[in-house]
Amino acid sequence: MEYKDYYKILGVERSASEKEIKQAFRRLARQHHPDVNPGDKGAEERFKEVNEAYEVLSDAEKRRRYDQLGADWRGFQQGGGRPADYDWSRWSSGSPGGAGPRARYATPEEMQDLFGGGEPFSDFFRQIFGAGGPAASGPRVRRSRVPDAEQPVEISLLEAYRGSKRIVQVGSQRLEVSIPAGATTGTRIRMAGVAAGPAGSSAGDLYLKLVVAPDPRFERRGDDLHTPLSVDLYTLILGGEIHVPTLEGEVVLSVPAETQNGRTFRLRGKGMPHLGQPDKRGDLYVRAEARLPVHLTPSQRALFEQLRCGGQ
Fold first, then answer.
1. What H or E segment, with its residue span, contains residue 42?
2. Contact, 195 vs 149, CB < 8 A?
3. Fewer CB within 10 Å, N or C, the chain?
4. Is pTM, for the whole model, over 0.85?
């Protein structure tokens, strides 16, 4: 049986505090959550590992027992022992059917709902801590479950760009929800077990369905953004620099001389982050629209007349 290094899974030192363990867990759980990585089997397995590691390291008694096992296991290996000869049974938590895990992020039932059945905890975990899994005596009793619900939530394009936190009202509860960077209209965020049901039933899940409101400056097409920008006639003809708005602030764009009205400029990496891959970004496309001068003075009008005559 494979030894699970829960500290390595969470990316923390063995001396990590409860706060450091919790912070590492939250970061990794968000990164690998199946709602953020639909259909990604690798992310599913990583999410299960992270959930299992946190189940052990966030519980003082389980962590103490795990640390004792780890020290014994390392000593066994350093003494030249073969993994196949290690006696795991002396670390067993008791007979089958004992108390199951108390996962903080997702219960075993919720993990099965997420991944379509199957045991959510590894053989290593069940051997050491007991999980009431397939070896448990008698059938697993599952409570009736409240149907899932869906609730729309409108967010701005800027919130979808940066990622943000929102307080949402669910019945009598006010809950904080994290909006992932790169969210689009139709992105669903699962809030497990917040829909309370009658006694004897397990709470259902609430899915927040995001609606990204139209932005007056930018049109979104996938991860790319498109925006028109008014440019004075003189800059289009003679060339120069213009200031272009982005969701991170203004940037300077060099406009070459004799730029035609309607020309589109591409600013790489200035678009939206990709959902689940915030380091990957789309582009910003800027369409130059000529701004013609008005209220010409007689001398200005004369100069334009000369240009017209010179072009004939």
1. helix 41-57
2. yes
3. C
4. no
- Is the confidence at residue 225, as pLDDT, over 90? yes
Record the tokens describing residue 141, joined without a space: 């009793």
pLDDT in tens, 122-155: 777 776 676 543 333 334 444 555 567 788 999 9
Exposure b/e, 123-160, CB count within 10 A at least 16 = b = ebbbbbbbbbbeebeeeeeeeebbeeeeeeeebebebb
Q: What span, in angstroms and rounded, lies between the C-alpha atoms of 134 and 47?
A: 21
Identify the pLDDT of residue 79. 62
Distance (Å, whole) CA 236 – CA 242: 10
Predicted confidence band at 219 (pLDDT cuts at 50, 70, 90)?
Answer: very high
With beta carbons less than 8 A apart as the criterion, state whether 12 and 20 touch.
yes
